[in-house]
Design a protein that fits this description.
alpha/beta; Arc Repressor Mutant, subunit A; Rossmann fold; two-stranded antiparallel ribbon; 9 strands
């Protein structure tokens, strides 16, 4: 399936489609039309069809979409048919919460190790994931064929650690640090700025109050 110049807006909607289709599949819904999916997701039917047509389309006119098939195909597009081995860098509260979040493992994202600067954590485990010293990180990435590094460290540390990561075969960084990372093109970065999200929520509260 050729993915030709797919916009980030379309890619950003794929996980939501996947989540809703998973719920429908679990409810025993065998097929669904774009109009029905539109009502559930509050996305126009036209937008849904346009999004799916970027990947060749998955439905038949007059029939709609086979829910299980569409769910599986979107999963493949998202790379969820593959195992992604990860490491955690920064074993504080946020890092521990991510490791303990079982839905990650259910989606094929598996933590293989955690790294921290605190000697008091060495030898301990988070949900059976062992915590190691930082100086073992590079070798661990190579030996265990790690795909993704998850950063839950302060800004200054994130910049320094990212420089080290660029010298490893790492494929991607899931960044929770409050800094925009500079990496080579071969490394993908997805940044999650929690404060930005909260400030956006604050803005929407104020806007709603002003309109009331």
């Amino acid at each position: 399936m050729e993915e030709r110049g797919i916009s980030q807006a379309v890619i950003g909607r794929l996980p939501r489609y996947y989540r809703y289709l998973g719920d429908l599949k679990n409810e025993g819904v065998e097929r669904i039309s774009s109009q029905e999916l539109s009502r559930i997701m509050n996305v126009t039917a036209s937008q849904i069809r346009q999004d799916f047509n970027n990947f060749g389309g998955f439905g038949q006119q007059g029939y709609g979409y086979n829910t299980s098939y569409l769910y599986e195909e979107i999963g493949k597009i998202l790379g969820l048919d593959q195992q992604h081995d990860m490491i955690l860098i920064g074993a504080g509260n946020l890092g521990q919460a991510l490791v303990n979040y079982m839905n990650l493992k259910n989606r094929g994202f598996s933590f293989k190790g955690a790294f921290d600067i605190s000697p008091s954590l060495y030898g301990k485990k988070i949900a059976n994931v062992p915590i190691y010293p930082m100086d073992q990180m590079t070798g661990f990435i190579v030996e265990n064929h790690i795909d993704i590094a998850v950063l839950t460290v302060p800004k200054a540390a994130a910049i320094e650690i990212t420089q080290i990561l660029t010298e490893t075969p790492i494929k991607a960084i899931w960044n929770f640090a409050h800094v925009d990372l500079k990496v080579p093109d071969r490394i993908q970065v997805e940044s999650v700025h929690l404060q930005d999200s909260l400030m956006k929520l604050s803005y929407n509260i104020r806007r709603h109050e002003n309109e009331s």
